[in-house]
Amino acid sequence: MKLVTTTKTKLITKPISISFKKFSQNEIETIASIESESSEFPWTKNQLSESISNLNNLCYAVSVKSQIVGYVIAMPAADSADILNITIHKDFKRKGYGSSLIDYLTKELISKGIKTIFLEVRRGNFAAISLYSSLGFEEISVRKNYYTKNSNQLSTREDGIIMRLELST
Questions:
Q1: SS3 state of residue 15
Q2: Is the Cβ–Cβ distance between 74 and 84 less than 8 Å?
Q3: Is 69 in contact with 88 (CB distance < 8 Å)?
Q4: What is the four-CA torsion angle of 106, 109, 111, 112, rounded to 10 degrees?
Q5: Active site positions, annotated
Q6: CA-based diameter of the chain, in Å?
């Protein structure tokens, strides 16, 4: 006869230190590394540097335990803003950091009088589309054959989905 003992345990969660900050050219190596490791179609270091150098753009990073794990670059204009790029390090995806970063950006944009956020995403980026939809973004337009699917087959193209989020003040 076997005796089986079961024990009930409580799930213990430890708070993780998450923070947001503006970033600049000083963090370009970290940002470029996250971009190249985590994006199927990464921006070049030069593209990132030019966007960061534009003083009108808003550049925010999300850090976990003081380590940058993602970033967003947005371009405000009048009462709207465009999210130009958002990337979370591949090891930190699907853990809420992307939505936290967009929430932080949204609060910053509202404080600047922004009423609408726009972004564009590849039709095949299902994870990103799902995230944006869950945050209230709606598809408003399609740019047919806007993106090149890969650099080896320039004739293979992919649609760009334009999404919008109306902000409440």
A1: coil
A2: yes
A3: yes
A4: -170
A5: 120, 132
A6: 77
The Cα 50–Cα 53 span in angstroms is 5
Q: Which helix (H) or strand (E) holds 12?
A: none
3-class secondary structure, 60: strand
Structure pTM? 0.85
Structure tokens at 99: 């939505």
pLDDT digits (tens, 9 = 90+) for 47-63: 999 999 999 999 999 99
Beta-bridged to residue 7, according to DSSP, are none
Q: Which tens digits make up the pLDDT trace of 103-153?
A: 999 999 999 999 999 999 999 899 999 999 999 999 999 999 888 765 555
Structure tokens at 114: 């922004």
Q: Tokens 């760009």 — which residue?
A: 160
Query: 160 near 120, Cβ under 8 Å?
Result: yes
Pairing relation of β-strands 80-88 and 116-122? parallel
Please answer whether residues 93 and 38 qualify as being in contact, where contact means their C-beta atoms are separated by less than 8 angstroms: yes
Phi, then psi, of 81 in degrees rounded to 5: -145, 150
